[in-house]
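New to this. Please check both lines:
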Amino acid sequence: MFEERFEKLGMNEQENFKRIVNYFLAHTYLLQVQYDFSDNLRYTNQDYIFVERNIELFQEYLQFSGFQLERDSNYGVISLRSPYEINRQKFDKLTTLMVYVLRLIFEEEREKLSLSKEIFTSTGDLVHRMISLGIINKKPADTVLRDSLRRLNRFRIIDKAEGFWENAGTRLLILPTILFIISNERISTMYALLDDVTDLGEEGDLTEG
């Protein structure tokens, strides 16, 4: 029984359990590796280790509410899934296309990797790639760009070093969760969106024709 197993945890472990469950509900993904931009080093995420050690307890608890907790040890990602449509986040078209381009960059750079496992881009490079692909005709308004990137950060798709999200030189880290937010099957269907993208308005609102 869940209650019996939960009670066997220490007080600090019980608090960690509660905190991490709330983290999953807010961010969907938990990564094994954390990157510190200040010293350019990788660190093991102790929350990931805790979940991995108690994975069955987390899964049992979350199943009561219809959630599935899935672990991919190859990429070091634990993700929260739900079959219910009400729990699915809807991205606007710009953010969705941004995910698509980030996935393209991730796949391209992954083939070039040698020792480093981190894949970086920048806000400027991302926007330039979107323009070169014909997805947008010009740089989105700063507020729109910032909101889209912040949302992707909330769901642990990207991270950044110092600087404002909308600044061209801001360094972005593309996290391996990019492989989970959009499946290989769906990546091909994203091309269809390119035929239905219109320009961004003066205020940065995405106009759908």
